[in-house]
Amino acid sequence: IRVKDENNKSPVFLNVESGSILEHKRAGTVVMQVTAIDADGTYPNNRITYKIDEKDPSLQDKFHINPDTGTITTKEEFDREMKEYYTLTVIAQDGAPSSLLKNGRPN
Question: Is the pTM of this model over 0.90?
């Protein structure tokens, strides 16, 4: 008898911190990398992908996150005198429908 893994664990971020970048750096400059883990035992239940929350669409034009690595880069050159801070919400989700949420979406 084989016991199958159920997608009952949610991703948890390992590093919750602030990134920074010097003004006037070219687009494509790395700001920071986020990392999360998922305690489920098998793929795709433990495969994590990252995205920037879409609730502020203007941030999608300014930052990019690699969905596989969590590396956040710029899409434009920034000027501190124009704006000093940006707040991004990063979402980490696993790769299978959740057995916790019962809505067909990943954890």
Answer: no
